[in-house]
Design a protein that fits this description.
Order of helices and strands of chain A: HEEEHHHHHEEHHHHHEHHHEEEHHH
CATH topology of the largest domain in chain C: Alpha-Beta Plaits
Distance between the termini of chain C: 43 Å
Strand order of the largest sheet of chain C: 3-4-6
Shape of chain A: globular
Number of helices of chain C: 5
CATH class of chain A: Mainly Alpha
Number of helices of chain A: 17
Chains: A alpha+beta, B alpha/beta, C alpha+beta
Number of domains of chain A: 1
Order of helices and strands of chain C: EHHEHEEHEEH
Radius of gyration of chain A: 24 Å
Strand order of the largest sheet of chain A: 1-2-3
Number of strands of chain A: 9
Structural class of chain C: alpha+beta
Oligomer: heterotrimer
Shape of chain C: elongated
Strand content of chain A: 5-15%
Largest sheet of chain C: 3 strands, antiparallel
Largest interface: A-C, 66 and 54 residues
CATH class of the largest domain in chain C: Alpha Beta
Radius of gyration of chain C: 27 Å
Amino acid sequence: MAQDIFETIDQDIHSEPMLLQMGPSHPATHGTVRFTLLLDGETVVKCDTEVGYLHRGFEKECENKTWTQAFPYTDRLNYVSPLLNNFGYALAVEKLLELEVPDRCNWIRTLMGEMSRLSDHLTCVGAGGLELGAMSAFLYALEGRELVWDLIEMVTGARMTVSYGRVGGVKDDLPDGFEAKWRRVKERLVAVHADTHKLLSRNRIFLDRMEGTGVITQEAALAWGYTGPTLRSTGIAYDVRKDHPYFKYGEVDFDVPVGTKGDNYDRYLCRMAEIEQSIRIIDQCFERIEPGPINTDDPRVMLPEKEKVYNSIEGMISHFKIVFEGIQVPAGEVYSYTEAGCGELGFYIVSNGTGKPWKIHVRSPSFIHMGGIHKLLEGAMLPDIIPTFDTVNMIGGECDR
Amino acid sequence: MPVLTINGTEVEVDRGTTLLKAAAVAGYEVPHFCYHPALSSPANCRMCLVEVEGAPKLMPGCYNQVNDGMIVHTESDRVKRARKAVLEFILVNHPVDCPICDKAGECKLQDYYFAYDAQESRMRAEKQHKVKVYPIGPRVVYDGERCILCTRCIRFCEEITGTGELTLADRGDKAEVRTFPGQDLDNDYSLCTVDVCPVGALTSRDFRFKRRVWLLTSTDSVCTGCEMGCNIHLDHFRNTTERYRPRYNPAVNDYWMCDDGRLSYKALNEGRLEHPMLNGAQATWHTIAGAAASKLAAVIEKNGASSVGFVISPQATSEDLFLAKMFAETAIGEGVRLFINGNDPGSSDELLIRADKNPNRAGARLVFGGLDGVGDASALADALEAGELEAVYMMGTELGAARGRVEAGLDDVGLFVLQAAHQGGVLLDAAHVALPAATHAEKRGTFVNCDAVVQTVDQAYPPNADALPDWQIFMKVAGAMGHKLPFTFLRQIQDRMFEASEAPEPEETATEEAPAPAE
Amino acid sequence: MARTINVVPQERVPKTFWEKSYVPEIMRGLAVTIRQFGRNTFSRKENRDTFTIEYPESGTSHYPERYRGRHRLMLREDGQVRCVACMCCSTICPANCIHIEAGEHDDPTVEKYPAVFVIDELRCIVCGLCVEACPCDAIRMDTGVHMQPRFDRTTAFHARDEMMSRGGLSLATKGGRDAVNEDYTW
């Protein structure tokens, strides 16, 4: 009798895979991405990624705007680290102009860029904790982010949509009392960072969810064009700041954390380590920055000082020509790349010699990551999608432009 | 033919060519303020100074003529320093007026400073104060502080219009451009002084503060004020024409145009007929074509084609008129009474103004094979008063002096179809069917001017509201009447016109057009 | 150049027995959060780490000096608007939210003024390019107040007089007319 029951239960129940839309509005997808999942039980058999729900026509818009008017648009690419986008774009246009910026400008760009990177990584780590259920860790990481944003707001006037970079320099110099405020913020930030570590890093629930999930091999990462912490988690030490230094990254000391296994936990550890390295870089910038001019003195590129504009016809003419015509960038094309929060952010710019760009193409790391993420998700379980997608850190604005 | 070397490039030019023109032939721009290709060269601004080997001082390129074997440098250090110095001197007393000056965006001082100078000011004293917002003429405003005393306006009034109202008053740093006492800058071309002025010293009162120049888009077009057809830049912003500026055409109008023609752009924007109207109520193109067709067909069937008065307009393009002819012949039929309306003749002069105030009467003449059998507006009024017409199909609303009689006569007519860009006041009320047409800014087409020059107008912006080009309206109505006219593109109409004209095929000539000389 | 120096592989420490048993780590975590809770609830105000700002009671007084908020139009010494309707701000605005119509001013030294100056604060992306583009210090965004939420969209169109009411004395009141500014060293 018992035999019969067992046999019946052991029979293969005919089942089909289930199609599940992990649709664009999903709390766990940062930004809007749609996964069409074919599930066999809890295992993802096939995953189809669909991006573009946040496409706002950045590249097309910039064709109708002057070079300076494109800066607010670059803010809204990777909107958690807008300063990195601003400076990446400014670097690209300066390459076409063959323009050198003063030292202090490069120090400021390095410093503020690293603050933006702090903001990006803290958001990623915090959101990752939140999605796995660790809501306190989220609040702590976001407290760290708020402190950084207060600093950024002190310099630029806005927390997120900063429009701080300019071709040939930055908008304003660092205000007085900035370094003192950084010292106070850094104390609290280091404490918050340590707390987040304590809450997450050795917690078995966290470890079980993150270790061994979302594994990507070195060959696959290279083949799919991954960069940034996602690539470094596999063990390949490629960091644009080290390999092709720009701004002042060649002159400051910092480590490049890499992972060993290429799984989610490695990416988490890399980001936590990069937060410490960013703090280190910012400290070094403050030590070494000297007073001086923050913008290039080329009158064809920079708006003249306001006093000269108000009081002299020469300043007024320069001001007017740059405002209504835009900076005349010589015809040509350039590809310029920097290390953004998610990976290598590239700007491929084509100029036709006028004050408006002919074409700006953004090599967005998030978009490239989305190209290969189905490889990470197929074969994994449904709940593993959450930490994988979080640590890959696709930012919707950057992915879809 | 002298051969000279400019910046290392050898060029051969005619005797009597100035260094500035020779440099232009070689492809090098020499900046200048007081020189204008159509005026005499006083060489007083010194901006065009170039270095000629063997000469101790820099020579003004606009005045000195070439000699065989000259070696000229237009970009040497000496020349660059001279340009910076000239600009610095001009800017010493130039007011900081860019925010309030209309010329910003097309100002040579701005362009040259940015391209050739870009140095900071060394001026520490207070600038000279002169007269501002001075009404030097009924249409022109003068600002003494901005004036760089290039005397282009003075020479224009002396040499081109021959009226000579302007002169330089006072000397040194108090010099200003003034009219002779009791005179105004009031000739028929006064607004051309605004074009020649390189800075914002002379500005147009009509365009004052209307729109910033860099927001305007320029389209090549032709003025419709008279049969001269002066070439213009039609400057528009967001589908509204803001001004006309003359365009260089040595065959027609050189660099100039008259004030009346320049201000005729206002008609493009005012009093427009916007929607198809049927018996006073707004309709759509879907319904109106059929309504017009059935009404017209009814009249023709009952009273014959000779009871229909078809009024063509010399304001329309040649393509519109060609379609009008096809419409009259096929849709209305033989025996239709043809009339031509249009603005009444006015004054003319020896320069550019012509008596016929319509752009395309010559085109109408060519399309219809002569206008002998075509009555004018007063003939239309006569026909209406005599009760000979049961229906009137009219293009355009220009009726001249006969307007009153025609309007009175239209009250009694059974069917009045108005196909025009403008409402024409009472004419719209009298119309049983009103078809909105596009102005010449809103369609592509050709005009034939008084000297038989065919000129193209380009489309600047899409037609206003529901308007359509006249030729498309004719095709709609004819199609609704059962006569399909086989055109889709303007090019097809032009090809058909060419075939119908029995003109020989043009020879393939590769003409190298010389670039227009810089003003 | 030296490639990939300072590469620090992240250590992967296998779980210890105590870590595998869940509870000690959870206790550690709870200790962190409870300590934070205790500090923020029971200690003296200055020692607390609470980050919350009581808005709108404590208002926006913590905004830094450079904060970009609502626009204001600056004034001349006689109280008239400093703006001369040069259209630089409306040209450079990436969002096309500034609408200006120029008018003729009676005083020939002033000559031009904005008869209509409307900013659609809902379209504004608060980038500050208009302030940078103004050649006369006529518009600023330093009111320190951000755009308030509202029920009616039309109240978001800020017109010239409303923006002037927030205005102060422009730095450039003597701009252009008297070219010498004794305070400025070139």
